[in-house]
Amino acid sequence: MENPSRKNNKVKKQNIKNYWPLKVFVIAMALSLCFSILSELVLGVAHIVIAIIVIVIFVLIAIITDMIGVAVTSCSKEPFVAMASKKVRGAKEGLQLIKNADKVASLCADVVGDVCGILSGAAGASIALKLVEGLPNASLKILISSLVAAFIAGVTIFGKALGKRRAIDNCTNIILRVGKILSIFTRKQKKEVAKKETDHKTTGKQGSGEEEK
């Protein structure tokens, strides 16, 4: 007979999985809103060179996050288990990423990657408007706008295609690097928690000392 606590854990995990698409929807909406407002503020008053830099940033983020999404689903746990036992920095974080590979891949490739891809297209449209401003020929305006959009889409797809192959071949190194970056934040959190615990113990000792007096 199955342990009731195990049953409850299974139900909880199933509920978390069921809520994940809704969480992805909320995260995607929030990121899209933030990036859209930021890009509109920058591109509305920016020179064309700044607009191009914004597009390059969005395209690079889309490619890099797509690579992380592919790498985490292609990666094996064994190297990270071995590295974690040797206390290699970033190995524990990398192992956690692999254990949650479906969520990480969805967040990186589907949410961040796609949002940045869409916004790079929107930024491209802003550049196209500045380029065709003042042109009398409507057909030429449509052609230039279409070429700009097609170029951005082509560069993004080309970059993702190259990135996927590289991500599969170097999945362990990529996830370890991501793990090392995450370890910076986890170390800070651990230090803060340890500091709070120390402060709490010190306060407790002081309180007991005062009671004894």
Describe this structure as you would to a colleague:
The protein has 7 helices and no strands. It is an all-alpha fold and 213 residues long.
What descriptors fit this protein?
213 residues, mainly alpha, 7 helices, 90% helix, elongated
Mean of pLDDT: 78
Number of helices: 7
Contiguous runs where pLDDT drops below 50 for at least 5 residues: none
Major β-sheet profile? none
Radius of gyration: 24 Å
SSE series: HHHHHHH
What helical percentage do the residues reach? over 70%
**Estimated structural class:** mainly alpha
Q: End-to-end distance, in Å?
A: 57 Å
Number of strands: 0
- The shape, in one word, is elongated
How much of the sequence lies in strands comes to under 5%
Quick recap of the structure?
The protein is mainly α and 213 residues long. It is built from seven helices and no strands.
Blueprint of the fold:
Elements (H helix, E strand, L loop, with lengths): L3 H42 L2 H27 L3 H8 L5 H9 L1 H32 L5 H32 L1 H42 L1
Helix pairs in contact: 1-5, 2-5, 2-6, 2-7, 3-4, 4-7, 5-6
